[in-house]
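[Discussion] Sanity-checking designs against the backbone

I'm trying to build intuition for which residues belong where. Below is a structure token string of 256 positions. I'd appreciate it if someone posts a full sequence so I can compare it with mine line by line.
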């Protein structure tokens, strides 16, 4: 469980997020949605422990996030950043093995660690890149390797900042199906996502942000409403029922 109580983060006089109060139960997929600059990435960085809040407290599994030792924290939560540049000539397998670092205690990876890393590459259909140098991969290929890295970390909490970036529809669906599978095992996924239709299809709960403030929170059908979306994004939307039961969201043709 993740609890955010009166969370705010300020730089100078500007609040990047403010007055966030959310309880995220284990076994659920939460989506953070909202326009550019809404505070999604900042909120993920706060939950990860990378940033300390200006106000409020974040608790992971009943314990304040800042009370964890770094290695202990790395074992319970994995954080996939939006910007993931790596220019050193590591192979994809070596990149994925970084996810085992919290368990090594300064020792070399064991055969078990390598097996876990190779299994993670297979889960994201990237095992063919095992010996490829990471800087030679396309954006989509590198994104799948990055997801494999956090899978090897084997945490209880996954924090993903735009994990479907650079991916074609096949791999977007694959990654989000994997997220649902992770949640089915009692673990938690919190992901920032721009594609409102994917958010509608996959998220159990959505937190809609604007200018760092939570303006709506709940199941996708209650958050992704015509009036709410038009107000937050500043353009008219059409929201239609999809045959599979979720909402189909698109900017209105009136905006063209």
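Best answer:
Here's mine. Compare freely.
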């Amino acid at each position: 469980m993740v609890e955010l109580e009166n969370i705010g983060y300020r730089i100078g006089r500007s609040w990047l997020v403010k007055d966030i109060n959310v309880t995220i139960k284990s076994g659920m997929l939460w989506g953070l949605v909202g326009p550019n600059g809404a505070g999604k990435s900042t909120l993920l960085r706060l939950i990860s422990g990378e940033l300390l809040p200006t106000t409020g407290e974040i608790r992971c599994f009943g314990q304040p996030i800042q009370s964890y030792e770094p290695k202990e924290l790395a074992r319970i939560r994995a954080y996939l950043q939006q910007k993931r540049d790596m220019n050193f000539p590591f192979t994809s397998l070596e990149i994925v093995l970084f996810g085992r670092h919290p368990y090594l205690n300064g020792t070399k990876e064991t055969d078990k660690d390598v097996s876990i890393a190779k299994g993670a590459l297979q889960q994201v259909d990237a095992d063919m890149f095992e010996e490829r140098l990471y800087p030679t991969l396309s954006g989509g290929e590198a994104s799948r390797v990055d997801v494999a890295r956090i899978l090897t970390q084997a945490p209880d909490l996954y924090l993903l900042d735009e994990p479907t970036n650079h991916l074609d529809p096949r791999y977007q669906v694959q990654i989000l199906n994997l997220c649902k599978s992770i949640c089915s095992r009692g673990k938690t996924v919190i992901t920032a996502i721009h594609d409102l239709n994917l958010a509608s299809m996959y998220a159990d709960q959505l937190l809609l942000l604007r200018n760092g403030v939570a303006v709506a929170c709940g199941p996708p059908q209650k958050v992704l409403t015509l009036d709410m979306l038009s107000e937050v994004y500043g353009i008219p939307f059409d929201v239609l029922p999809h045959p599979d039961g979720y909402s189909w969201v698109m900017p209105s043709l009136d905006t063209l």
